[in-house]
Amino acid sequence: MNQSTFSVLKLFPIALVITLAVVGCKSKEQIAAKPKEAWRDTFFPDPKEPNPVEVTMARQAANGARADGMLHAIHFDDDALNSLGRDKLERMVLATPVGSKLKVFVNVPDNDSTAPRLANIENFLGEQGLAKDQIAVARGTNPAALGDTTDSIVARKAQRDGTGDTAGGDVGIGIGISK
Asked: Which of 95, 85, 88 has its CA nearest to residue 59?
């Protein structure tokens, strides 16, 4: 063994003692007194607390359901609301301000099942806590959910053709996204 290896071996026990003194040792009582999940407090949020991202996503889904305001044939099993229809109505109720009227448009063909479907919607919304005067159910599409795309189409065509006439303003790329 050379001299430097020998001096490192001599320093190792000293370094070990210093490390243990700095880091410290905990007794069994100290370890038992601290909850097992205490490390979560400083780094991870409490899993019982609502996640802010999930709360925001739920609000956006509710706002979107209310803005759309339509139920289609896919929301029904025969005359009854299915789980998809119930979920959409629940979201619409969540996004409805207290005391406001909730208008639901039912976009289904007019046949023998139309009246029972409308009644099922009103009953379900009543179970959700809305009064009869807060519920408006109508057949057809929601006119507020439809938009005129003429200006955007003209502007997009002008942009593509290079004529430079973009009278339609910002040209929408996709739905609801502007350049």
From this structure: 95
**Strand ranges (E), the chain:** 70-72, 76-77, 80-81, 102-107, 135-139
Report angle CA 12, 18, 19 to the nearest 5 degrees: 85
The whole model's pTM is what?
0.59
* Closest CA relative to residue 179, chosen from 149, 169, 153: 169
Q: What is the pLDDT of residues 132-177, one digit of tens each?
A: 999 999 999 998 887 777 777 888 888 888 776 555 444 444 444 4
Question: Do residues 66 and 100 lie in contact, with contact meaning Cβ atoms separated by under 8 Å?
Answer: no
The token duo for 63 is 């706002």
**d(C-alpha 178, C-alpha 76), whole Å:** 35
